[in-house]
Amino acid sequence: MENQGADVEHKGTKIVHMDDHVTLIQIDPAYSPADESTTETQVDGTEKLLKDDEPKVKTTKFSMSSSPDEEAGKTVDNKGTEASATPLTRPPPLSAQTSVRPLDICIFTRDRTVPGIMLTVEDGQNVTVGEQTTQRSQGGVFDMVIEELKLPKEAREVFALWLISPLLELQLKPHHVPFKLTCQWSALLKKYTSEKEENILIDEPALIFQRNVYLPRAKEQLVDNPDMLRMLFYEAVYNIVESRYPCEEIHYDMLAGLQALVEFGAFDSQMHNSEFYSDHVKQFYPEHLRRKKLYQYIPGLRPKTTVEKRLMSRHGSTSLQYGDLINDNTIQRKYLEFCWTLPYYGSAFFHGQIERKHTKGRKLVELIGDSDLDVLVAVNRDGVFVINENTVAVLLGLTYQELSWEFAESKCAKNNPNCMPCLFLKFEVVDEQQTVSKLFQIFSKEAIMVDALIQSCVDMLEAESQETGGGDAVDGKTAENTKQAFFSRLTSMDDTHMCNKMDKLCLTTFNAEGECIDNR
To answer: What's this model's pTM, rounded to 2 decimal places?
Structure first.
C-alpha cells in the first residue's frame, strides 16, 4: 500500500483515502474513550492480538542462558512477554461526555471491482467485531459484513476483519472494538513500529475483510462460492503485486496472463497492444520486476523485451488456452491453485531487520551504517518465512516441525528506541555429515506479535493432531508428507527466489553438546 494522505474533516466525518477508495468514519464530537481500566484492558488485548487470552506453555520453545548477540553489542534480556510489555498511552478524550449515536463505517475487501461496504451501526463507538464462527454472531461488525455481502455460513471461517494501514496490520479478535482501536492507532504505531513521528501522524487504518490467517489451506481449497472465490482471488493478486509472495519470473508472467483474462476479457490484438498495457502493468507485476535494470540507463542499450510486452504475450496465449472459461470462476481458481502451492500463502506479514552477512568489506559496510537488511517475516499455519524486501527472495523458511523459537527484549529497549526486541529461531541442519543447531536472530518491534501468532498456530496444530489421534504435531515425527509437499521448493532448488539461502545469513552454530562452534 502507499502512504495515505492527510485526513479531511467535513461535516462531522473523517474521510480516509486508501487505494482509490474512501473510508468514511463518523466522528462523534461527544465521544469520550472508556475509563482508564477499560482502555488498558483493550490495549492489552491488542498487544496479544493473535494470542489466546490465557497463553499456554510453549512446549517447542527453547531457553538461553546467554545470547550470542551480546558479542555484537546487542544485549538481550530473556524475559517473558507479560513482564516486557509496556502499557500504551490512552489518547486524550474528545469530549467530557459519552453519547450513544449511530456510526457510519466502511469496510473494504481486496476486490478492486467493488466499492467499500457502508454500514450504519447503532452505538458504533462500542460495537465489537463479534464472534467469527460458523454460527451467527451477536450483532458484531463481522456478522453485518457477512449479511451485507450475502455470503454463506462457511465464510465465517474463511474470512476475518483486519485493521490495516501501510505501517501496521492487525487481525482483530471478536472482543475488539474497531472504533476504539482506531482512536488508539498512533499509540500502537509508536509501540510496534519504528516510523518517524510525522509518518505516524498521517497514518490512518482501514477495516479490511480478508482471509483469516488461521484458515487451513485444505479448507480454502473446498470453497466454491463465486463471491468468496473472487475475494480470495483478488487478495492473492494483491499479495503477488505487493511483493509478498516470491515467485520466479515465469510464474509472474503466468499469473499476469490469468489476471489479464479476468480483468480484460479475451485478447484482442486491435485493442490490446503494448501501449494499452503500459497504463495497467503496475496492477499485474510487483515493483521489483518493473524496476529498471542498471544497464537500461546506458544510452543505446534496451532490454530484449519489456514487462508490457511480456504481459501482452501472456494475455494472448492464456486467452487461447482458457478463452471459453472467461465468464467462469475457473480462471480465478487457476490463479489460486498456483498460489496454494506457495509455502507462505495466507501468511500474516511483519516488518523486521536481520544482520547483513558480508564476506568482504564487512567492517566498512558497518561503519557506513548499512549492516542491517530489511525483511518481511511471514507467518502462517505451516511455518515461518523470512523474505528479503528488496530482492523479494526467500532467505529462510521453516516448518513448525523443524523450529524452536524464543522472544527476547533488551533491558535498554524501553529507554532506547533504536534497541529493538528480537525473535530467535533455532533449527537443525546436517553440516559436513554432522547434525548441528543453527540460531537465527530477527530484530523487530513486532516480534512480540510474531511470537504470539507462532504460539497460536502451534497450539492449534497440536489440538487438531490430538483430536485426530496423530500425536504431537510439532515434534518432527508427524506431518512429514505435508512438510515435503509444501516445502520442497525451499530446499530442492539452487539460486532461485524461492529456496533457502542460509549461506547468506548470519547464523550461530552449536554442536550436539550445545557448544558454540561458529558465529558468523
So the answer is: 0.77
